[in-house]
């Protein structure tokens, strides 16, 4: 009886597994989840092997997906990079936005900017893989005019998001000194990228508060 019952139960399970209702309950990951897996895998692969040397086959394998899944979501490695760059910049913009929302700038401007500096410093300290990939791509962009044009176009959109936060910090006041908002954005980006290089080479010279102190000075 036990064998019969066991066989019957096994057959019942097998039949259930082949039924449309059973298959419907086993859902494939949505497009957003697949893109997220690919981006996370690409970041890991690009950082380990370098952007030029990394392949989409490696990205697909690291994500546990097929190469077809890569191409159904991204045109190639460059598209993966630009999506990563947007993710990274916007996550930092949102973190800055949260600080500005919690601390009215006109009440404690200098302390708020120090908090912003600490958040940005923590971001580039913790996101080492991304910074390595970014520097890899930057080297490629300055050697290839076509790549540089796409790089600049994508960064222009992201600079606009940063400029919005700078204007929020200024809160209607004129820019410090004879700086324009674009000048301030450029300096903030240059500081961020420059401090990344210094921090990875000699972290003892880049204190948590350095970025914020410089931003405070910039604010006048």
Protein architecture, described:
With 220 residues, the chain is mainly α. It has two domains: 1-74, Arc Repressor Mutant, subunit A, CATH 1.10.10; 76-218, Tetracycline Repressor, domain 2 (Orthogonal Bundle). It contains eleven helices and no strands. It has helices at residues 2-18, 20-25, 31-49, 56-63, 67-71, 77-102, 109-126, 128-141, 145-170, 181-201, 210-218. Helix 7 packs across helix 10 (181-201), helix 7 (109-126) packs across helix 11 and helix 9 (145-170) crosses helix 10 (181-201). The chain is elongated.
CATH fold field value of the largest domain: Tetracycline Repressor, domain 2
Number of structurally distinct domains: 2
CATH class category of the largest domain: Mainly Alpha
Q: Got a strand count?
A: 0
Task: Report the biggest beta sheet as strand number plus sense, adding barrel if it closes.
Answer: none
Rounded mean pLDDT is: 81
Query: Per CATH, which architecture of the largest domain?
Result: Orthogonal Bundle
The CATH superfamily of the largest domain appears as Tetracycline Repressor, domain 2
Principal-axis shape equals elongated
């Amino acid at each position: 009886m036990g064998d019969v019952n066991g066989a019957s139960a096994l057959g019942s399970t097998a039949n259930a597994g082949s039924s449309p209702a059973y298959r419907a309950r086993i859902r494939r990951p949505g497009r957003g989840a697949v893109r997220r897996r690919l981006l996370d895998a690409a970041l890991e692969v690009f950082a380990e092997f370098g952007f030029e040397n990394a392949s989409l086959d490696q990205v697909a394998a690291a994500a546990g997906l097929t190469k077809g899944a890569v191409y159904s979501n991204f045109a190639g490695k460059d598209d993966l990079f630009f999506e990563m760059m947007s993710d990274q910049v916007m996550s930092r913009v949102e973190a800055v936005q949260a600080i500005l929302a919690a601390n009215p700038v006109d009440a404690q401007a200098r302390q708020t900017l120090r908090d912003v500096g600490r958040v940005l410093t923590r971001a580039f300290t913790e996101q080492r893989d991304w910074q390595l990939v970014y520097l890899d791509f930057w080297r490629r962009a300055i050697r290839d005019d076509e790549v540089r044009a796409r790089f600049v176009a994508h960064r222009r959109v992201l600079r606009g998001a940063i400029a919005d936060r700078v204007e929020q910090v200024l809160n209607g006041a004129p820019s410090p000194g004879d700086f324009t908002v674009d000048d301030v954005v450029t300096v903030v980006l240059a500081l961020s990228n420059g401090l990344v290089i210094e921090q990875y080479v000699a972290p003892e010279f880049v204190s948590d508060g350095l970025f914020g102190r410089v931003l405070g000075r910039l604010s006048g």
